[in-house]
Input
Amino acid sequence: MLITVIDMKRFLCLFLILLTVAFCCGCGGDESEDSEQLTYYYTAEYQDDMVNTIQRYNRWCSSHSTEDMKIKLIEFDNYETMSQRLNIEVMSGGGPDLFSNYMDLPFEKLMQGGTFRDLNELIENDTAEDKIDLSAYNQTIMDAGMYDGKRYFAPVFYRIHTLVGEREDLEQFGMPTEQGYHLTFDNMDEVFAEYLENPGDLRFMNDDVRVGGVNAETVIFQLVNAQSDFENNSVSFEEGFQDKLELLSQLREHSVFSGDGTEAESAEEKPVLFHPVVSFSNPIWMERMMNLLSGEFDDSFPEGFVYEPEVREPVMYTCFEDDESTYTASIVDAVFVNAKTKKDDKVLAFLKYVLGEHLQNLYAGTDEEYWSGGDGMDCLPVLNTAFDHCVRDAHKIIDYYGIELRTKDELSPITQALIEHIENVNSVVLYFDLYHSNYDKNVAIPILQEYWDGKIDAQKCEDNLASATKIYILE
Output
């Protein structure tokens, strides 16, 4: 009788999964999808840079008479519907051909469960003349995709998180003012001591992560995430975690939050200590900001153009590193391939495109097409030669119309500090936006919200995070 009950439960579970998949197939996506094309799921309501890249790739295919290589974009009404469909299909061994780190999936767990293709096999078995040469790329960033000796994803672009404030504001609170100051979870209590004692009208940050990818809450997620080793399935909350959580939560309380789900008040309405909108990752963008602040080239702008800077003497900090020796980068775009996908030629064609010289230079802002109205992002390329262009092109001063005015002999101190940070990167996070990582969204955020709402204390918060994370890792 016991066996019968267990079998019945398994049958019902499988039946519900299949029923839900069938239901989702009827309410989202495209049932007429061409099985010969690679597929990718997206929703227009969520900013997914991979969609822009795929659209550009499809246009490239059209212009090169390779229509059969195009990727089919399957649109869903909203992010929640897409996430439900994705998780159900992946659980039952299906899903699209391509995934990215913008999707709501437990990637750390799936990489160990056989869901994704080992990209090393694809690359090594390629006999074409334009075979991908992995040695031509930033090894630290690229190796972030390595788990148990297999390469489960290919990073395409990345960013570093920095904090940029006004020198006068920092001096007001006795905070360091050297460019590239290494702010860590260990020294932050000393750095923010005077500020927390009497912040006045100056808020810590605003809550918009769209530009800088970081705010007071994502810094707390970063602290929580550092307590787990997903690759080795271990959870260990360090001594002093509660003190760090309490201090960061105070900084969160001193940040600009709307509180009602609407857009937060702008930094102009409520002045802030750090400005994510000027926390650039790319040396080109950072140096051009400094050129604007100098006012030396105001004549190059159209008549009537007025630039009102948020900061006039910017100082850059690294953004809450784990310790003095850690320099962290976050991946902006990562490509995963479904293990069931057998369209190797199409996968390789797309990987060669996103890792190729043209796109790497274009999105990093070193391609002339960018200045003629093409795409551009404040990101860093994984291709070494493209990054070298970022450093060299940072010396150029470009006017409003994309015309080079002259070449500088020396970069500003803040840009030099930025480049030094990039060159020291030794830790890589898969997610650019931690709000949408599966772990933070489903495990960390609900528990932290209870703490912020005063429903539990710091000790209970730590205990709940530890137990919930262990369940998440092992389930």
Q: What stands out?
A: Confidence is low (pLDDT under 50) at residues 1-34, 258-268.
